[in-house]
Amino acid sequence: MKNILLLVHDDAGQEARLQTALDLTRALSGHLNCLDAVQMPVMVDSYAGTGLSILLEEEQDRESENRAKTQPRLASEGVSWSWADATGDLAECVVDAARTADVIVLNRSLDAFPAPDMRYVTTEVLKHSRALVVAVADSCRHFDAAGKALIAWDGSERAMATVQRAVPMIALASDVKLLQVGDISDYAIPVEDAATYLSRHGINAEVQLAPAADSLAVAIRSEADRYGAAYLVMGAYSRRPVREAIFGGVTRAMLSACSLPLVLGH
Predict the structure, then answer these.
(1) Model confidence pLDDT, tens digit, residues 144-155
(2) Rounded Cα gap, residues 17 and 33, in angstroms
(3) 242/245 Cα distance (integer angstroms)
(4) What angle do CA 27, 120, 243 make, to 5 degrees?
(5) pTM for the complete prediction?
């Protein structure tokens, strides 16, 4: 887990993404690849032709100014980094750049109309990339890799794959807990097996079985607050329709309401 991809874009979440990416790069002794994406203007009739070109030029100028401010900061941070430029749909730009990434740092909201909501971008990236996504709230200014890690467990292969890919990060945590809310399918991976897997990587994870709850997202957030978690690890968006309806809803709810950094895999 050495290749960290950072979306650089002049919006309200940029500082959160940047600080998180820098913390992760240092903690993992990795390389930070900065993707400066120019969002293509939305195609609206009144903006056709020359109007669309003007909007695109304004967006390019905005990102040029952003680049001029951001690159000197990166040069002073003492991390290995590189820079790439792209123009187009934000999600498509990130997915294309993520083919060699281990971790992608995104946030969850984008304030400027008509740009898409970052929850949409995060969802699209998760569905089309094998890299982990670290999704942070705009208010986030620090990723504490040495803090407590809470893993939300539903027994799915997706959850197991997320844990496997996140091992280098989880190994840095001061304390790790696997949380299972309610019962899981007889065909699911037992939470104890996940704990055994982690133990073979030198990670001693506590297992907590919580009673079923009306809202899985609320139950997970409540335990994260009680536990004092620094971040939350969870699988996101199952391909199976039934699980998509249940745990996919949890993913959307967590992206909307959880203030902790979310380490998500699909």
Answers:
(1) 999 999 999 999
(2) 13
(3) 5
(4) 90
(5) 0.88
